[in-house]
């Protein structure tokens, strides 16, 4: 459990929504803040989308500090409940840290160029036109499905298993499960294939078949790359992120609770 002394320098970042901006005004008057590049931890006001933006900003900059979110958005799955700022430092000191390792994506485009990206929630392959996609799926170098005819397919981390993956009828994964969810999106063939649960150490490769006729894009969280030929995915252990949660509101508890929502 973290001590307050570990987080003596805090940064404050807020989304541009009215609710988050109002909360930021109150917090800025209540505490002293430092820029993110000088902080030991960051307080994030907004929703899950804004939290993902901040986590990606830290990944891109190479300076990663724990993030404590307070929900000023809609769902707030990655956030704590917003409360009065009076005991904020105490809450952060008592918060439980959860490590989240992103997916690393290496993609080859149809023109032969390569791109790289990281995804905290999932990487999704999606058809670009009315034509269904045809995708070959390999795990650790072995072809597991020679052809999936579908609208797309995605690979989700445990943290992202309750996002797009859940909407596509994929499994919810506990945060400490060390698993990945491989989930088809509107699969036509094979009709009965509902996806797979893979060890976190797996390397997954998607190869696009008939890419000229059936173009496919790859989306790593909010970053889209079009006209993909091949995508290689694996967990990036070198850039682990840390989210701070109040006791009793930890992400693993939310993942369990989400499975009983009716």
From TrEMBL:
One GO location term (cellular component): cytoplasm
Residues reported in the UniProt entry to bind NAD(+): 48-49, 121-122, 151, 159, 162-167
The organism's place on the tree of life at top rank: Bacteria
Cofactor: a divalent metal cation
Gene3D superfamilies, A to Z: Probable inorganic polyphosphate/atp-NAD kinase, domain 1, Probable inorganic polyphosphate/atp-NAD kinase, domain 2
MF terms (GO), sorted A to Z: ATP binding; metal ion binding; NAD binding; NAD+ kinase activity
Similarity comment: Belongs to the NAD kinase family.
Protein name (record): NAD kinase
Organism of this sequence: Tsuneonella suprasediminis
């Amino acid at each position: 459990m973290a001590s307050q002394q570990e987080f003596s320098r805090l940064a404050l970042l807020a989304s541009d929504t009215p609710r988050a901006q109002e909360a930021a005004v109150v917090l800025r008057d209540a505490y002293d803040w430092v820029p993110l590049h000088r902080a030991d931890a960051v307080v994030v006001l907004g929703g899950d989308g804004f939290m993902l933006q901040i986590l990606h900003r830290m990944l891109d900059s190479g300076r990663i500090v724990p993030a404590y979110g307070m929900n000023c958005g809609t769902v707030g799955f990655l956030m704590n409940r917003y409360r009065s700022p009076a005991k904020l430092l105490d809450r952060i000191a008592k918060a439980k840290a959860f490590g989240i390792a992103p997916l690393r994506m290496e993609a080859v485009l149809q023109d032969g160029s390569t791109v790289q990206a990281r995804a905290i929630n999932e990487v999704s392959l999606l058809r670009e036109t009315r034509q269904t996609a045809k995708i070959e799926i390999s795990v650790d170098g072995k072809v597991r499905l020679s052809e999936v005819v579908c609208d797309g397919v995605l690979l989700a981390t445990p943290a992202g298993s309750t996002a797009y993956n859940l909407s596509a009828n994929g499994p919810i994964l506990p945060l400490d499960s060390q698993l990945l969810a491989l989930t088809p999106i509107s699969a036509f063939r094979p009709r009965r294939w509902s996806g797979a649960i893979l060890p976190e150490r797996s390397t997954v490769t998607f190869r696009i078949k008939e890419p000229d006729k059936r173009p496919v894009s790859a989306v790593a969280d909010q970053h889209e790359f079009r006209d993909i030929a091949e995508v290689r995915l694996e967990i990036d252990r070198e850039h682990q992120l840390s989210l701070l949660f109040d006791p009793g509101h930890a992400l693993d508890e939310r993942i369990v609770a989400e499975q009983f929502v009716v």
